[in-house]
Amino acid sequence: MSPQQVEADWYDYPQYFDLSFRDETDDEVEFFEKAFARYVDYPVRRVLETGCGGGRLVLEMARRNYDVVAFDLNEKSVSYVRRRLRRTGRSANVYVQDMTNFELEESVDAAFCTWNTFRHLLTDESAQQHLRSVATAVNSGGIYILGLHLLPLDIDEECTERWTAKHGGTKVTATLKVIETRRADRIERLRINLRVRSGKRDLRIRHEFPLRMYTCQQMQELLASVPEWELVDVFDFWYDVDDPLELNDEITDTVLVLRKRREIVRRRK
Ligand SMILES: C[S@@+](CC[C@H](N)C(=O)[O-])C[C@H]1O[C@@H](n2cnc3c(N)ncnc32)[C@H](O)[C@@H]1O
Description:
Elements: E1 4-7, H1 14-21, H2 25-39, E2 46-50, H3 56-63, E3 67-72, H4 75-88, E4 93-96, E5 108-113, H5 124-137, E6 138-149, E7 160-167, E8 170-182, E9 187-198, E10 201-212, H6 216-224, E11 229-235, E12 253-260
Helix pairs in contact: 2-3
The protein binds S-adenosylmethionine.
Residues 11, 18, 21, 51-53, 56-57, 72-74, 77, 98-100, 114-117, 120 line the site of S-adenosylmethionine.
């Protein structure tokens, strides 16, 4: 029997998105904790995730006794994370919020945003606003861990990635393909196909969406425009805190560690 096909926002299926990234969670969270110890000179207790999706990182950080605040634009994702928290007896403050521009009631010691979530902000203004909002939310000396793909100068623009993940009786195969690259307005369009097999269920979810593109230089320019943050180190998706890299035109899978400056020296015009 052929699979049931749906054209839908894949973030409306947070359980499957989350499952497809589940194997990365431990390495990421281990890295967060090592980065907190290395780059923040006070104990990190309260953390923020911007664009938390199905909540795999929220749940793991809550399990490790952090005080977690997290939000996402997608209501279905937020409801799903809340249900998971209830089911596992953990607590975290999770709500619907656009990450472009926000304020927290209480500041945090550190924040994180991985797997290209930041690239959903499609203009320079929204990216700057976001970085300023996070800077207001994070205590001085705290960090923001930002993970995204940068565009090397010699990138293959027709790139396709495929990966499979299983949990319980559910198997998810994700195929992500770049279908359009517009260098002029820095937009890349991607198509994701999620094939979900679970018992008798065989579902194929197809979604197309845009992301903003960054070369190394464009990222450096963006960071220079938000002086609240200093770039303290760069890593890749191996998350090896003992192996910092250079921000250059060769790196693709990039994890930036930004630290909130204690004082901002504004440049004279
Ligand atoms: C790639 S997923 C990452 C989810 C989660 N951080 C993880 O690593 O499992 C991106 C998430 O960002 C959310 N998102 C996209 N644009 C957003 C915005 N402007 N404000 C808040 N969340 C947004 C999507 O709904 C989606 O859940």
